[in-house]
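Re: the 333-residue chain
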Amino acid sequence: MKKSSIIRSVALGALLAAGAIAAPANAQDSVYFANNAYRTGPFSGSGIPIGDGMRDYINMINERDGGVNGVKVVYEECETGYDTKKSIECYEQAKSKNTIVYSPWSTGATLAAIPRAHVDKIPILSMAYGLSASADGTNFPWVFIPPFTYWDGASLMVKHMAAELGGMDKLKGKKLGLIHLDAPFGKEPIPVLENLAKKYGFEVKLYPVAAADMQNQGSLWLSIRRDRPDYLYNQGWGAMNPTAVKEAIKNNFPIGKLVGVWWAGGDDDARAGGPEAKGYKSLNLNAAGQNFPVIQDILKHVVEKGKSTTPKEKVGENLYNRGVYNSMLVVEA
């Protein structure tokens, strides 16, 4: 982790502590935590497990510990369907209820909230998403983006490609394709990839995917077959990801050379390709599985008591644990 990320994580803890951990001194019975969600629409395949993990962790803290220092955490979702206009309504609702932190859960929603939060002095937690430049706390004091940005992800992808090829000097003359959602989220890696391409002599090919075409990528993959990139980086989300895996297999693209951003690493993303998807990779920022004390506590205090809608076998999957991690930053920072 970069030094700046460590510093900003500490700053996040200090900010949230002012609202949550210090709450008993103000004789509060509860603190309010607002979270944008998308359990409906084409992004729901990713939004549901993340939302489940976030909610179950908060429920576990309330059930196991009675809240934070005896203060219950009131967790509320506002359904956006991944729509930026709806997210603005959700922000205003969160503001009216004095949320201790606002989780936009899309880059578009984050961009819309940044100027508002600066005026309202509401911390924005955009965990590994949102505006990469907001990692600079000098210019964005109310935005927190641990532990990585999309610029970091683009750099990691290039380093991974170089490592497999035998060194940074081996990048010269190679071709990297970027499959990306045609939205602010999808475009975030482009400037970094283009700058690194100039520095190391490789070519970047862009393959934008409109939200309406996430499950209809046939023409895009015709272009990929024509261009014959050496590697593909998928800056995808929702239904776009399993479709990309299936299309890679269908078009005989080497599955081991298709790498997803951390939001393209859900269990269902790879499942879509069946056995032939073995070898598909994604960047990641959390561990998966149930063999962790926090996950065991969620199972014990929430799932097994019937206080969760998450199927037991889904607890511990990658995006579920990502949601747990997000809520953990809010509660335990």
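The two ends are 16 Å apart (CA to CA).
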